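User: Fold this; tokens only.

Assistant: Input:
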Amino acid sequence: PMARRYNEFVPDTVGAWQLTGKGMRLESINVGREETISHGNASMTTGICKRPVDGPVRVTVDGIPGDAIVATEHHGGADQAIYAYGADDYDWWVEHSTHDYFPGLFGENLTIRDMPSNMCIGDRLLIGEVVLEATCARIPCSTFATRMRDPGFGMAFRKAEKPGVYFRVLNEGEVTVGDAVTLVASGEQDVTVVDLFRFYYALQHDADTLRRYLEAPIAERFREKIEAKLAAL
């Protein structure tokens, strides 16, 4: 999949694929360096503290050059090269909690206005010549709680079910703040980002549902977890 190029994803050449989300806009591009954060008794080295940068910024199959990815067992790689979060979901957090919120706070590379909270796996975002494909949900960890300086934030994030979206990069290119973003829905998958988010925490699983998840172009880390659950059943 990494070798396929942009012209293979132009909607009028891909049958079921269709443009559905016009009017979205790239509000912020965020890059982090490796640094140590701490809160209470917790301390770790991380790249989660991402800050807005001026464009244009190159987006590659490995992510954004210079963006630190420290916990490589959980983050980064071809299937999770870019993490995006909706500016509208940040607005929701402002209304429902006492934290201050700003682009890059959750460790996302791209902050996008009007991005749906619950995209289907396999849906794509077009930003200029860049093509991103949704692969999985973000799962909160202890680093995230330390970043928020709130040991209970992981549970709040879980309950909110606004996890943001990891993407693989199908076509590289440059992006700039203010760029238009278009959602291209596959129409081929009905596995959503929130489905995978809920799967991660579920105590019981249905074999048919897990098989359906495996039919979607999910990130390899999630695929391994689902395959293990299916084998156990």
